[in-house]
Amino acid sequence: MFSIGWLIGTGSFLFHTIPSRLTMALDVVPIAVFMTGYMFWVCRVVYDFRRGACFAIVGVVVAVSFGLLPFREPFNGSLFYLPAMLTFSVVALTGNSQLKKRMSFVAVCFTIAVMLRSIDWIVPWSLGTHFGWHMLTSMIMYQILMQMIEYRVVAND
Hints:
The chain is built from six helices and no strands. The protein is an all-alpha fold. Helix 1 (about 1-15) runs antiparallel to helix 2 (about 20-45) and helix 5 runs antiparallel to helix 6. The mean pLDDT is about 85.
């Protein structure tokens, strides 16, 4: 997961400096892989679902995300991230006490990040709000990685 985090940063940098279909794929695919891995981890480790159930759940969520990808307007392509937002919210509401506080924070931050990404194309200032999306999502990725580490440490005690 840490390597995927590095790929996300690299892909995003490339896409924002040299926009093309290839660099867009280098930006979007690692994010999708990270979120898929996280959702599978939540299913297996947090909720103790069987592997087949996890594949089915994650498959549906990924299919819905990519199904929303063509609908760019009026949310600047942010509907793609709606299933991730719902995943964070479900974990925040139904996870154990170890997860609830961190995932509540992540769910709120991700909601704000998606809102910033959605309005980026309509704000009147040249800097836009996309930098806020990147700042918040990098913090969220850190929180998720720390959650996975802490969960593993507590489970092994």
